UniProtKB/TrEMBL annotation:
It comes from Chitinophaga flava. Residues 35-230 form the DUF58 domain. PANTHER family: BLL2464 PROTEIN, DUF58 DOMAIN-CONTAINING PROTEIN. This is DUF58 domain-containing protein. It comes from the Bacteria.
Length: 284
C-alpha cells in the first residue's frame, strides 16, 4: 500500500501472488480450445486468431476463449464507517487496493470487470468490460471514491439489477455495518438472480479483539452516536462479535453466499485465492 499508483500496486500484489502459486492451478481463458467461428462485429479483438487469418485471410474467433470468460462485478461499500483506520490503514483504502488487485487478476484471466460503489445513499456503477482502456477507467474511479453518508437505499439499486441478466461473479467488499439488514437484503436479492457472490468483511485487529485500551468511548462514524466503554467487560465484546459473525456467516451460506472475514493488517493472498477458486468453479 506504499505504492500510490493503483494499477502498479495491483500488478505488484498479483504478480507476487501468482509467483507463489503453481502455474497449473491458474487457468486462463482459452486453454480449453474447442472450435473456431467467424468474427462478428462487437467481438473482443483479443480473441482473434492471427495465425488463422494469415492462412485464410479471414477473421476467426477462438470460441472457447469467449465461453470461458466471465463477468466480475466489484461492489464496494463506501459509506462513512469505511473510514475506520488502524495502524495507518483505512478500510476504504484497503478496499481500493483490494478491488484494483481483483480487477487486474480478472483482466489477466480474460474476464470482464465492472464496478459499483455504494455511498452517500447513492450508487455509482460501471458496466463490466474487458478492454485495457476500461481497466484504466476502473482504476481512476477507485482512486476518486470519497466515502461518506450511509449505505445506499434500495431505490438506487436499479443499476445493479438492470442490463443483461447473465450470471456474474460479484465480489462485495464491506465493513458490514448495517442498521436494519440492508446489506444482507441486497446480497440475498442478488443471489436470487443467480449470481455467485463473495463477501469480504473487512475488520481491523483492534476491532476484532475489542482492544480499546486508552479510550473512554467509541463513536459511530455514520450516526455520530457515542458509546461509553466504562463498565464493559473486556471479554464481552469479542464473544458478542464472534456470535454475531457466526450467525451472519450461517445466514449467508444458507443463500449460497460465500463469507470471509479479512483483517486490514494481513496480505491479500487469501482473497485472491478465494477469487480464483470461485471463478474456476463457475467455469466448470
Amino acid at each position: 500500500m506504499a505504492i500510490k499508483d493503483l494499477h502498479l500496486a495491483a500488478k505488484t500484489a498479483v504478480d507476487g501472488f501468482m509467483a507463489g502459486m503453481h502455474t497449473s492451478r491458474v487457468k486462463g481463458a482459452g486453454l480449453e480450445f474447442s472450435q473456431y467461428r467467424s468474427y462478428q462485429p462487437g467481438d473482443d479483438l483479443r480473441w482473434l486468431d492471427w495465425k488463422m487469418y494469415a492462412r485464410s485471410d479471414r477473421y476467426y474467433i477462438r470460441e472457447s476463449e469467449m465461453e470461458t470468460s466471465i463477468d466480475v462485478g466489484l461492489l464496494i461499500d463506501a459509506s462513512n464507517s469505511m473510514l475506520h483506520t488502524e495502524d495507518g490503514i483505512s478500510k476504504i483504502d484497503y478496499a481500493r487496493y483490494l478491488a484494483a488487485s481483483l480487477g487486474y487478476l480478472a483482466h489477466l484471466q480474460g474476464d470482464a470487470a465492472g464496478l459499483a460503489v455504494l455511498h452517500h445513499n447513492q450508487l455509482f456503477s460501471m458496466a463490466a468490460r474487458r478492454e485495457a482502456q476500461h481497466m484504466a477507467r476502473l482504476y481512476y474511479q477507485l482512486e476518486k471514491i470519497q466515502p461518506g453518508g450511509t449505505f445506499t437505499q434500495p431505490v438506487h439499486y436499479r443499476d445493479l439489477f438492470a442490463g443483461p441478466h447473465n450470471r456474474q461473479l460479484l465480489i462485495f467488499i464491506t465493513d458490514y455495518y448495517e442498521q436494519s439488514g440492508e446489506i444482507t437484503n441486497l446480497l440475498q436479492t442478488l443471489a436470487a438472480l443467480g449470481h455467485e457472490i463473495l463477501v469480504f468483511h473487512l475488520l481491523g485487529k483492534k476491532e476484532l479483539t475489542g482492544n480499546f485500551k486508552g479510550y473512554d468511548a467509541v463513536e459511530d462514524l455514520e450516526t455520530g452516536q457515542q458509546i461509553e466503554l466504562t463498565g464493559i467487560a473486556d471479554t464481552d465484546y469479542p464473544v458478542n462479535l464472534e456470535t454475531y459473525t457466526a450467525s451472519l456467516r450461517k445466514q449467508l451460506l444458507q443463500k449460497r453466499i460465500y463469507y470471509r472475514q479479512h483483517i486490514l493488517q494481513e496480505p491479500m493472498d487469501a482473497v485472491l485465492r478465494d477469487f480464483l477458486n470461485q471463478r474456476n468453479k463457475m467455469r466448470r
